[in-house]
Design a protein that fits this description.
about 10% strand, elongated, about 50% helix, 2 domains, Hypothetical protein af1432, 7-stranded mixed sheet, Beta Polymerase, domain 2, 19 helices, about 425 residues, alpha+beta
Length: about 425
């Protein structure tokens, strides 16, 4: 058998980027050969094995034949007769279809039948063969790579091919789990906005995320949003989240916080009264459709409903601050509350000419939370019990103590209660 390093490990080494894991292709072997050498079979749909020592993945060279719609509509063939070039031909992009010998020492050891090294130098994302059209997940992968490799462009012929795939209905058959997998990865790339630029250009965004797609062309008040267009603002918010190294939940909340603006009646534009609740309703349907993890879903829901109130929190008094913290469940989940505030900071700074502006609401609300947390609720509850006070009255006493603590916190609330 012959073993080759393939895919991202070769690509990233050529680009001088860190290589976090390796993928290997084995040519000329059978599953029985692999097991006999101590490899552990783990592939469900095709033969993939874990190395007995390194635990890295080794896949038998294979070919694929289209048998139906979508990501799962393939018949996979593996045999010792499948060549390395045949295996590479089924890959998505030329930059991912480069192989190197297991003891790779330099460029002379590359096997590059589709010009991937050339496209790396030219900074081009180009499909390998026409078989690209057989798997709609590849549309998402191209968009994700555009977000990662920010100076790469999508080859015109590849963009045209993706448009044809969308037109032919291939994107309608994307599996929700794979959409979320690629979307979440793309959100965590260096410039997430590029993923959505590519998806919009080929028409796929309207299919997989229509709630997001309809935000382009929706105007906002120029005094609040100098960039005016809601879709443009959304992309600025996402890139600000990347700039601030926000975790996935925050970035997803940034993506979905303004969904309701896409359903604002035309006669009230550019104002968006009540868009927060509309955003939360649309978010629910989107999360159910894509099976978004609960933690991302819950964080995004709070940001959608409360980001306007958090932006206005500089004008809130002690009682209103406590109510806001309670609605955000900040007392019970303080770490998530900080992530909610980070998403709001990304929203505030994701505007034209506001990129470097401070966001005092975040430290102020964190101080308010610290004041709330300073209240010894167990002591209040014990004293209430001694006095025969129970039930809702205890909660009211605790709430009042929290308001008092916020009002007394140094520098947090002014003399007039704001």
């Amino acid at each position: 058998m012959d073993i080759y390093m393939v895919g991202g490990a070769v690509r990233d080494r050529l680009l001088g980027r860190p290589v976090n894991d390796h993928d290997w292709v084995v040519v000329g072997a059978t599953p029985e050969d692999m097991v006999a050498r101590g490899f552990l079979p783990v592939g469900r749909d095709f033969p993939v094995f874990l190395h007995p020592d390194t635990r890295e993945e080794y896949a038998l060279a294979r070919t694929e034949r289209k048998s139906g719609r979508g990501y799962r509509g393939f018949v996979v063939q593996t045999s010792p007769d499948v060549t390395l070039e045949q295996d590479l031909s089924r890959r998505d992009l030329t930059i991912n279809a480069i192989a190197a010998s297991a003891d790779w020492a330099g460029a002379q050891d590359l096997f590059d039948p589709y010009g991937g090294a050339r496209d790396l130098q030219a900074r081009v994302l180009r499909h390998v063969t026409g078989s690209f059209r057989e798997d709609p997940v590849r549309i998402l992968r191209v968009a994700r790579f555009a977000a990662r490799f920010t100076d790469f462009t999508v080859a015109p012929e590849t963009m045209q091919l993706m448009r044809e795939m969308v037109h032919d209905g291939e994107a309608d058959h994307l599996v929700p789990e794979r959409v979320w997998q690629e979307l979440s990865r793309g959100l965590m790339e260096a410039r997430p906005s590029r993923m959505f630029d590519v998806l919009r250009e080929c028409g796929a965004l309207a299919v997989i995320l229509p709630e997001v797609d309809r935000l382009w062309g929706v105007p906002q008040r120029a005094d609040h949003h100098p960039e005016v267009d809601t879709g443009v603002h959304l992309m600025m918010v996402l890139d600000m989240a990347a700039r601030l190294a926000a975790p996935l939940g925050v970035r997803f909340a940034c993506l979905t916080h303004d969904l309701g603006k896409g359903t604002t009646p035309p006669d009230v534009l550019p104002r968006h009264i009540g868009h927060e609740q509309r955003s939360a309703k649309l978010l629910k349907g989107l999360c159910e459709r894509l099976r978004v993890p609960v933690d991302c879903r819950e964080l995004a829901d709070v940001v959608a409903r409360e980001h306007g109130n958090i932006h206005r929190s500089a004008d809130l008094g002690a009682a209103a601050l406590v109510r806001l913290i309670e609605r955000c469940d900040g007392i019970r989940k303080p770490a998530r509350f900080d992530e909610i505030l980070l998403a709001c900071e990304c929203d505030a700074r994701g505007r034209l000419h506001f990129e470097e502006a401070p966001y005092p609401q975040r430290p102020r609300l964190l101080q308010a939370l610290a004041a709330v947390q300073s209240v010894a609720t167990n002591v209040i509850a014990a004293r209430a019990a001694e006095s025969g006070v129970t039930g809702q009255k205890v909660g009211e006493l605790i709430h009042a103590a929290r308001v008092q603590a916020v009002a007394a916190w140094p520098g947090l609330v002014s003399a007039d209660g704001t």
